[in-house]
Write a structure and sequence with these properties.
mainly alpha
Length: 95
Amino acid sequence: MSLHDDLTSVQRRLDDLMRCVARLDEHTGDSLDMRRVRADAGRLRESLVLLLDAAPGIAGTRKTEMVTIPDAPYDRRLWTDAEDEGLGSPHRHAP
């Protein structure tokens, strides 16, 4: 299996695990042990996301949206009522 296939398989199995944990939670109720199981399953999901982000050759499978920032200056009216950070209002004295 390729790395992509392995990661996809892990993702499917982790989704199955999350569904099973949710069903188990319905039967057992909110106990310390159940909270631990939910937390551990959540950490596995977070770890898999980090692995997908760091895995070489997998970057093309995750879509990232590019945000373009215009080169034109901002409209000065946007800053009319803004205060300088740390200095307060321009009409008052700084501490």
